[in-house]
Amino acid sequence: MKLLLDTNILLWAAADTLPKAASEFILNEENELYYSSASIWEVVIKHGLKRPDFKADPHLLHTALQENGYIQIPISSEHSLITGTLPMIHKDPFDRILIAQSIVEGISLLTSDEIIAQYPAPVIMV
């Protein structure tokens, strides 16, 4: 199965703090793991704000994803355009682009966000 990991799942994987349900998907060697360039962008922004609750280094995260065989999905115009057709269930632009990418690419979005799970998209809630 092809899985696009949302930003929180990526960060939990990097910190080795994944919930068991998410671990089962990520450790299953039959699954292809994807991440969005939007997730890296989100981490760069939050890291740059020097939020005390946000310690992730975007460069280390990106390197680790590449070294562990995760496949990057760049943001395309088609992804951007689809965000305009999504219902306004969630206003977070990073989550909306991930939802659009999962729809356009036909990849299941692995998330722990109950709001994202409300979208008519291929979402797996863990």
Supply the key terms.
about 130 residues, alpha/beta, Rossmann fold, five-stranded parallel beta sheet
Topology:
Layout: E1 2-5, H1 7-15, H2 20-27, E2 32-36, H3 37-48, H4 58-67, E3 71-73, H5 77-83, H6 93-105, E4 108-111, E5 123-125
Parallel strand pairs: 1-2, 1-4, 2-3, 4-5
How many beta-strand runs?
5
- Quaternary status: single chain
The CATH superfamily label reads 5'-nuclease
In N-to-C order, the SSE pattern is EHHEHHEHHEE
Low-confidence parts? none
State mean pLDDT (0 to 100 scale).
95
Question: What is the class in the CATH system?
Answer: Alpha Beta
CATH-assigned fold name: Rossmann fold
The DSSP helix count reads 6
Number of domains: 1
Report the radius of gyration as a whole number of Å.
14 Å
Helix content range: 40-55%
What's the arrangement of strands in the largest beta sheet? 3-2-1-4-5
Biggest sheet architecture:
5 strands, parallel
CATH architecture: 3-Layer(aba) Sandwich
**Roughly how many Å apart are the termini?**
15 Å
Question: What global shape is seen?
Answer: globular
Estimated share of beta-strand residues: 15-25%
What structural class results from the helix and strand content?
alpha/beta
